[in-house]
Amino acid sequence: MSVNTVRKYVAELEDRGLIVTESTSVTTRDGRKHNGTLRYTILPIQNAVDLYNQCQLRQLKETTERMRVAKKLEAIKEHPA
Fold first, then answer.
1. What is the pLDDT of residue 1?
2. Could you point out which of 33, 36, 37, 41 has its C-alpha 20 to 30 Å from the C-alpha of 27?
3. Dist CA 29 CA 40 (whole Å)
């Protein structure tokens, strides 16, 4: 896989709440600091399930609100003031 493909899928795993990445640093023998590698932490699956449920609930609330507004607008069109 290309670097961009891996980066894309790692970002997707982070967005879904399945992993967390953090940068590390390396100190050389002469005391200079350099960027290290990424540390990947796999999160409990319940975090991802909770995040998914929150997203679903938010979408449901948004859809319900859109339907309520559309119904109100339809009623106004039928009976203008």
1. 87
2. 41
3. 26
